[in-house]
Amino acid sequence: MNEEKILEYLKIISKIKEEEKNFENVEDFIFNIQNLLKKVSLKIFIEKNKITVSSENLENLDKKDNLFIHIITEDVNQFLEGKNYSNLFNELTISLIEQKNVEDLLDAILEKLEKIIPYTSANIALLENDALYYLSFRGYEKYGVEDFMRNFKMDKREFYTLKTVMETQKPLFVENTDEYPNWVIIPETQWIKSHLMIPIIYENKILGLISFDSDTPYGFKEEDIEKVYPLLPLLGIALENAKLYEKLKKELEERIIAEEKYKRSFYQIVKLASDIVEMKDPYTSGHQKRVARISVIIGKELGLSQEKIRALAISSLLHDIGKIGIPSEILNKPSSLNPLERRFINIHPEIGYNLLRKIEIISDIAPIVYQHHERINGSGYPKGLKGEEILLEAKIIGVADVFEAMTSHRPYRSALPIDMAIKELVENKGTLYDPDVVDAFLKSLKEGRIIL
Ligand SMILES: [Fe+2]
């Protein structure tokens, strides 16, 4: 090689450096370098995000040519990697600032890393109680093991690699899994021939791991670890967020379970109270449950809110709870009642009200129970309230109660036919009973929603 050519090469190198300084985008940069290299009959090839410099006339290249080619290749590749890398880092930082959810962010990290680390598959996992849970993974679909990854829990007691990384807090490099003495072979991952595991440390604690697999031995280089390092603080924050999110999710699930248990227990207690009353008044056994069923159907037909339906269900289950304070001999009297006994019976809404208003969580149903014998023309008891003065829920229970009582057998009379009970409601619609409630009831009955 003559000196002239060496000078030419040096000029090209300095012009490439200038191009690097003025870099705006990859396409223009490569195009300009192509032009520079043409002068020395060299060409650029791009493969897998890497450039290769070569000549059409390979035989004519001497040692110095090859050295030049090597320098240019290394320099340009390193420069481009740096560019990719800083772009990547910026993009990911922006993703975090934009508060994308943690899973999306981790997916984006793995996707971008694919461009700078040639992996077959990769994953980011959260470490909890000495085991790894995979939050994000990529590339495993090629081997049909996505579901396996989704459910897989890697325990440090079973996996030497994980144990080592946890103890040393340093990356672990498995160049060839066939030669690695403590590599655990499982059928789903036996295609992994080389492996790289990097701990994600946040505030001196390992929060998780980012791992890369390759289906060929020696698939990773030491430099690959360097490429991931600047991303680790970002991954640390992401995993910390994921951990907090998991904790919140768990707490919420526990709360929901506790609330459901509480609700179940609450209804069991309401039913117990309902059963106690009916035990005292066996002639009306099952009456309150049937009234509750009918009331809820009417309430739904009238479009009541869920909260009101709940209050309606509880108040109808307990509407006669005041009978607990009425002497059994009056309640269970098989013949008709005298006026004094009737007055006694008629105080059961007040007794019920006084019992229920003391229970904070159902104090809202006490006024409904109090009013369930009021009638819209003021002929009811205990107060003789009229029309709008009566709560809708109480009017609903009033209709359901009358209909259920009329169509049930009593020791002093037999059950009335349904037609007769309907007739009683229709005839007194607008005087005793709220017209809308009666209409909603009749519609539900006609459409077969009320089953007796
Ligand atoms: Fe009653």
From TrEMBL:
It comes from the Bacteria. The lineage of its organism: Bacteria, Pseudomonadati, Dictyoglomota, Dictyoglomia, Dictyoglomales. This is Metal dependent phosphohydrolase. Gene3D superfamilies: 3.30.450.40, Hypothetical protein af1432. It comes from Dictyoglomus turgidum (strain DSM 6724 / Z-1310). Residues 262-452 form the HD-GYP domain. Residues 284-406 form the HD domain. Pfam families: GAF_2, HD_5. InterPro entries: GAF (IPR003018), GAF-like_dom_sf (IPR029016), HD/PDEase_dom (IPR003607), HD_domain (IPR006674), HD_GYP_dom (IPR037522).
